[in-house]
Amino acid sequence: MRLLTHNMLVSNAKGVSEAEGYPLALEVTEHRREETEFDVETTRKTMETVKYDALRGAARAVAIDLPEVYDGDDADLLRKVHEALCDVHVIEGCLVCPKSGRRFPINNGIPNLLLHEDEL
Amino acid sequence: MSHQQRRACIAAGAAAAAALLYWYRRRQPPEGATLLEAVLDEEECETLETLLRDLLRNGSSLPGKTYSPVTAPAFKKRNQSRETLQFGAYVDKNRVQNAAVAPLPPALLRVARRLKKLGVVQSVPDACCVNFYGQGQWLPDHVDSKKFERPLVTVSLGSEQCVVFRRRGYLARRIRLPVGSALRLGGDAANDWTHGLPPATRPRISLTFRRLNAETKRHFADETKAIKERRDAKKALKRQQRNKPPKPSVRAERRPEAAPLPSEATDKTPSIELEHVRSVYNAIAPQWHGTRYKAWPRVAKFCLMNCGAGALVADVGCGNGKMADAACRRGAFTIACDTSDALIDIAHTTHKDKRYECLVADGVRLPYRSGAFDVALNIAVLHHLSTAERRVQCIRETLRILKPGGRALFYAWAKEQKNGSENRSGHQFDSTDVLVPFHLREHGPHYNKETARQCPAHAVRDERKNATVLKRYCHVFAEGELRGLVAGAARVDECYYDEGNWAVACTKL
């Protein structure tokens, strides 16, 4: 799971609203970096959708420090953002609902956000 | 004058008399044949000839078999043929046939009426065969078909030619036919004498006026009626077949049994979906993946049109991720999900080097932010949801995660399955909620004993096919059903039938 995906994820636990269930806390036990091609325009366009604060919080879990304020004209920052969004893969870990504390496991790079039947 | 001289003289006289008699008798029409000269005057002849030649020129545009060109090569070679126009009755090689031809045109009808007025015929002829003889063309000796009433009347135009009558044991008779004359053939002349025309020295037109006898007319009318009735019956049968449900297919499993529907309305996943969708896909994932790895062309086209660089795409119910290539081709980032973790494993393994992310999640409760995605794909998902509420919920969720102006594409299996090669899966549905069998082979290239998942409880072993039969639940969509569901939530851009599915492309407003 890449951080771009994490940025879109919200807890769907029962009784948790979208505002309460975002962002999911990220616990990382294993992650990997795979460098991919960086394109300023694509990253800038992607950042229109990304919530920067949530990305900054998640990046901390994989040891990437992002500045407090996002500046779309800063090429160096964009490169760093691209690394955080697309190059880091969380292989093993957990996503935690900030409201209910429900833990969604990440195994072999695949998060499982399927609720159990007794949670519905 | 000597005795001898006298005898010679008498002989010569007798010979001359005999020759004269012969000449005279040769030119006497046989009994029943009468020649009436100047039935049409010179001006009438010219007008009629011009008119008929005009008709001939446009012969091919005349109805049915009215116009007959010279076709038989052997006839053409021997000059034993000519162009004809036939009105009221059709004759081919002196045989009357029940073919569609034009009725007598007014100009010929006028001539026919005059023949009656002149007392040549008892009743007005309703058929006329117009023969156009070119130079050198001739007509073999013949007796006109007995299906025509007697007398027959032939009016000559164009140039004066001869007709020759022959009968065994009689002297042949040669009658000249002046322009504007009418030759009436009745009695012996029409039935016992043959008549033929020697090669024409100049172009000539002959008009043979006749009437089919009552018996033939009745026979033809019955025949035409029977043909029409047969054709109508065939049409009606075809119409009936079109409206009838399709014939039972040979393979019973292609006509799936009806599925029992959940009755309780809760947030929980109905047990039929757990047992007959999720568990089935988890068990069949490797084999499923082995035969379905290509994106449908129209879905791929939709992706190419909408998924540009920097765009975010949600593939809701991605299965084995067969849309991955199409979705990512132009640089979009795709997040795909499915309830079957076995399928997600396959999708992840197959596409992890692309900008394609997989997770296990339910399309009815998507764990995504609202308004985050540019494009959403919901391909072959809705037909696995067992209640109308859940299908609507899945559509709502798919649209919720889109940005305003974002585009979504929905595909759902159609109840209306076409026949023949267009129906790739070969299924026919009698009911809208069905259990579709899947034959899971526990052998072969897609089977791995180590990683194989446990089959759901309903699975049965089919020894004959050496397979385990699992039943997938499907709600097949009737025409307009998908459109109706989507139209309540978004602007429908396009609605079509493709790959046995109903498809709707829409835009979130």
Automatic annotation (TrEMBL), chain A:
InterPro entries on file: Trm112, Trm112-like
GO MF terms held by the record: protein heterodimerization activity
Family annotation (SUPFAM superfamilies): Trm112p-like
GO biological process, one term: rRNA (guanine-N7)-methylation
Recorded family membership: Belongs to the TRM112 family.
This protein's name: Multifunctional methyltransferase subunit TRM112-like protein
Automatic annotation (TrEMBL), chain B:
Domain Fe2OG dioxygenase: 124-213
Keywords associated with the record: Membrane, Methyltransferase, RNA-binding, Transferase, Transmembrane, Transmembrane helix, Zinc
Signal peptide positions on this chain: none
InterPro entries on file: AlkB-like, AlkB-like_sf, AlkB_tRNA_MeTrf/Diox, Methyltransf_11, Oxoglu/Fe-dep_dioxygenase_dom, SAM-dependent_MTases_sf
Transmembrane segments: 7-24
GO molecular function, one term: RNA binding
PROSITE patterns xref list: FE2OG_OXY (PS51471)
Region of interest: Disordered: 223-269
UniProt xrefs under Pfam families: 2OG-FeII_Oxy_2, Methyltransf_11
Bias kind Basic residues: ranges: 236-245
CDD domains on file: AdoMet_MTases (cd02440)
Bias kind Basic and acidic residues: ranges: 223-235
Classification via SUPFAM superfamilies: Clavaminate synthase-like, S-adenosyl-L-methionine-dependent methyltransferases
GO biological process: methylation; tRNA modification
Record's keyword annotation contains Aminoacyl-tRNA synthetase: no
Name of the protein: Fe2OG dioxygenase domain-containing protein
